[in-house]
Amino acid sequence: MLNLNGFFRYLNDALSSHITLSIMPVESLSVVMLSFAAEFTSGFAAAGALMDAGILTTKQTVIALLLGNITAFPIRALRHQLPRYMGIFSPKMGLQLLLSGQIFRVISIIAVGLFYYVIA
User: Fold this and answer.
1) DSSP label at 26?
2) How far apart are CA 35 and CA 57, in angstroms?
């Protein structure tokens, strides 16, 4: 219904006029959003299609997948890991373990992404 009313076309035009980066073109936002909204494999599928079409380079695809992974971590952590951690440990300790693990994970992904961006 949103597509029929032109919402996605409007959103594309609005985002493309405000968000243009040399490291990440607007087209790569679909990879980030699919990784965030759906599962990470959907981001892989979109990234592969955009690379095959020649819209994204390998470097842009890797950066977009890493950004999608970083933005999607809160939803996945709450859905999959929090119940398990709180079931094994006390709720306070489970939440602390989850947050510390996810913070270190995001920091390491950012560090590797920056290293890849500079090297590649």
Assistant:
1) G
2) 18
